[in-house]
Amino acid sequence: MSPKSSKPPAKPRQYHHGGLREELLRLGLADLESYGASKVSLRDLATRAGVSKTAPYRHFVDREALLSALMQIGWSALRAAMADATDSVESPTDKLFAMGRAYVGFALERPGMYRLLFSGDGKSLSGSVCSESDDSFALLVAQIVACQATGWRADTAPETLALSYWSLVHGAADLALEGLVQPPSGMDTLGFWSKIVEVLQP
User: Fold this and answer.
1) Is 157 helix (H, G, I), strand (E, B) or coil?
2) Which residues contact 189 (CB under 8 A, 6 or more apart)?
3) DSSP letters spanning 58-109
4) Could you tell me which of 146, 176, 141 has the C-alpha nearest to residue 159?
5) CA 41 to CA 53: how far, in whole Å?
6) Are 172 and 197 contacting, i.e. CB atoms less than 8 angstroms apart?
7) What is the pTM of this model?
8) 133 CA to centre of own chain
9) Mean pLDDT value of segment 129-151
């Protein structure tokens, strides 16, 4: 019979000043991309963070609260991607195209987050993060207004044009993400769908 180990049992990891919340969000984002929103579990995250099963509930009252927090991160990241994409171009229409390309790129680079924002689990949570999603749409509307200042479709409400452009880009992102249309040989997915969006640029 082997002698008993004298090594003391591992102690739960200690987090201070919101550190556990940030760790749960970090792990949740990783699980979101690896397995999808349906597999994100507070209990699983607690195990991986090295804390008790009940510890996460000090920061998130339930799984929906965690997903809402992840969505807020996602909306902020999408808005930042769209805004940053316009930095290297000058004309209003080029900026609009850059935003569309960034939107498709976001879907391809972060499919788990994209699906959470626009389908599945996220549908029932969208009301709790409307300010973040509204910020992204407002950014698009502002760019449409800049395009109209050059004389393009000045007789149409900017919100209507923004919805039309969003529909185009969102459709391209969905098709790209699901692989329903394959790019020609030698052309990358983002480049191919960016060309599709560019066809209907103002």
Assistant:
1) coil
2) 108, 176, 183
3) GT-SSHHHHHHHHHHHHHHHHHHHHHHHTTT--SHHHHHHHHHHHHHHHHHH
4) 141
5) 11
6) yes
7) 0.86
8) 10
9) 88
